[in-house]
Design brief:
With 151 residues, this protein is mainly α. It has one domain (3-19, 27-135): Four Helix Bundle (Hemerythrin (Met), subunit A) (Up-down Bundle). Helix content is 74%, strand content 3%. The protein has helices at 3-16, 30-49, 53-64, 71-81, 85-107, 111-142; strands at 26-28, 68-69. A two-stranded parallel sheet has the order 1-2. Helix 1 (3-16) packs across helix 6 (111-142). The longest helix has 32 residues, at 111-142. It is elongated, with a radius of gyration of 15 Å.
Length: 151
């Protein structure tokens, strides 16, 4: 698998768990964060198709500043990630940065640049999924918030 594909798959999971990066809002569950990110990704794409730069900006900003899962949920996810926490957080940072660049391009109504950043963001999300989704999904079902170690 290529490095680009791997990076892409990891990004969406990372985006959902940006410990120091996300807003202070909490979405409670990892799944609800991921669902919100998927909704905002779809909003960006739809907005770019019709050159609705205000909506594209708003959705990209929502991705860059997504809510965090609850503390217990973050502990469970980081426990599932195991010794790859740095990689996980790095991928989240990439998603955050790319979403900010996408928002800037949309704010400037630069369609070509916005499309490039959108493509990069999709690639990063898929990379995060490929790297972490199966492990995180399976481990979250067996780890309760009370027995997840702190990280």
């Amino acid at each position: 698998m290529s490095h680009t594909r791997a990076a892409t798959r990891t990004a969406l999971v990372v985006a959902a768990l940006a410990m120091p990066l996300a807003s202070t809002a909490s979405a409670d569950t990892f799944q609800s964060v991921m669902q919100g990110l998927a909704k905002d990704m779809n909003r960006v794409q739809s907005a770019l198709f019709i050159e609705d730069f205000a909506t594209a900006t708003e959705a990209a900003e929502a991705i860059a500043d997504h809510p965090k899962p609850s503390l217990g949920e973050r502990r469970r996810v980081l426990s599932a990630v195991g010794n790859r926490v740095s990689e996980f957080r790095g991928m989240d940072q990439q998603v955050h940065d790319t979403a900010e660049q996408l928002a800037d391009a949309a704010r400037e109504q630069d369609l070509d640049r916005a499309i490039r950043y959108h493509g990069r963001l999709v690639t990063e999300c898929i990379a995060c999924h490929s790297a972490f989704r199966d492990k995180v999904s399976s481990d979250l079902s067996r780890l309760s918030p009370d027995n997840a170690p702190e990280r």
